Amino acid sequence: MITRGRVPHVRRVCVLAWGGAAVSWELSSPGPLGPSLASCAAFLLLATGCALHIRTRLLAELRRSQEIAGAVQRALMRPLPARIDGLALAAAQLSVGGDLYDALPTPYGVRVVIGDVRGHGPGALGVASAVLGSFREAAYDEATLGGVLRRMERALIRHAGGEPEEFVTVLLLQIAPDGGLLALNCGHPWPYVLRWLPVPEPCCAGSRGRAAPHPPARPLRALGGAPRPERVGLEPLGGETLPPLGVLPLPGPGDLAARPCGRLAPGEVLFLHTDGVADARDRAGRFFPLAGAVTEAAAAAALTPARLVAGVHAALLRHTSGRPADDVALLVLRNDRFGRA
User: Fold this and answer.
1) Could you count the other beta carbons within 10 Å of the beta carbon of residue 94?
2) Which pLDDT belongs to residue 118?
3) How far apart are the first and last CA of the chain?
4) How many CB atoms lie within 10 A of CB 56?
5) Please, are residues 159 and 117 in contact by the beta-carbon 8 Å criterion?
6) Cβ(95)–Cβ(327) below 8 Å
7) Amino acid 70: pLDDT
8) Nearest C-alpha neighbor of 81 from the set 97, 102, 99, 98
């Protein structure tokens, strides 16, 4: 059976076949060559016009499909507020259904999700919608991140009709009022923490030839001001990672505890991303230097989440010549809870 999406292709093949048959018949027919060549030219012009018309219709249908997919994705990935419970936020994406993220204020702290659905297009968009919708509901109801993750797994199974055929990498974070971090990671890249580190003094040797201890790292500056003798420190969070959601059933309740990941101090920044960022390549096949791009973008004075996202996003587009091969999502959160415990 010929599907609707194949009809324009079949029509184009038929037009070209008809034109070729007509030209062959004219050239093989007895009689003067001039009229035959004129007839061939007319047939070729007609076939070319039909092919161009079909191509124009195909491009129009493609643009229309992309516009519809973009509108659906914009409805799904609603814009994040600039601030949630003392956290400043910014995000960016280049995708067609494959990536998802959100941040919500809850009684348990600010809960954040970022994920990447296998595949692209409408199918991936449906999976992302099911998983993200489940997170938005469960984040308010479930007392633990493990409970949130189980609700997301059930939503994925229901969407697939009981037999998951797709999987999703998912990172869940919970940021408590005091900055304490909890995480559950299902096969997703770990985020980075940005903070300012002191620059070593030119002469740091003590009287006995031992290096003098450096002062501790200070929070990343968030309110601008004069340049300081400091450098940006980029530290990845890390730890045990579960398989992507949908590959294997989640562990039992006793084995699904969220992992403590330290504390996000006032002024410090969390940089979250999908694997399409770190895996992006240039024309020579070189991977995108994500850590360097984040450090470079963060070195600017008066750093804001929006500027950090814009700087890394621009560097990624330069690296890939404006055409990343995979979906891309960036999410940045800064702790602006100054003066709080």
Assistant:
1) 20
2) 79
3) 67
4) 10
5) no
6) yes
7) 54
8) 102
Number of Cβ atoms within 10 Å of the Cβ of 49: 11
The token pair that represents 254 in the structure block? 């006793």
At 1 the pLDDT is 37
Compute the mean pLDDT over every residue in the chain, rounded to the nearest whole number. Answer: 77
Give the total residue count for the chain.
341
DSSP of 137-174, one letter per residue? HHHHH-SSHHHHHHHHHHHHHHHTTTS----EEEEEEE
Q: State whether residue 204 is helix, strand or coil.
A: coil
Q: Which residue has the tokens 């300012």?
A: 196
Closest-CA residue to 17 (of 61, 54, 41, 51): 51
3 state DSSP class of 73: helix
Q: If pLDDT is split at 50, 70 and 90, which confidence band does 232 have?
A: confident
C-alpha to C-alpha distance for 92 and 26, rounded to whole angstroms: 59
Give CA separation, 198 vs 172, 217, 246, 269, 338, in Å. 31, 6, 44, 17, 21
SS3 315: helix
Q: What is the pLDDT of residues 35-49, one digit of tens each?
A: 555 665 666 676 676
Buried b (16+ CB within 10 A) or exposed e, 239-261: eebbebbbeeebeeeeebebeeb
Mean per-residue pLDDT for 301-327? 86
The CA radius of gyration of the chain, in Å to the nearest whole number, is 28
C-beta of residue 176 within 8 angstroms of C-beta of residue 265: no
Q: Is the dihedral of CA 271, 272, 278, 283 positive or negative?
A: negative
Can you give the pLDDT at residue 154?
92
Amino acid at 63: R
- How many angstroms separate the CA atoms of 154 and 168, rounded? 13
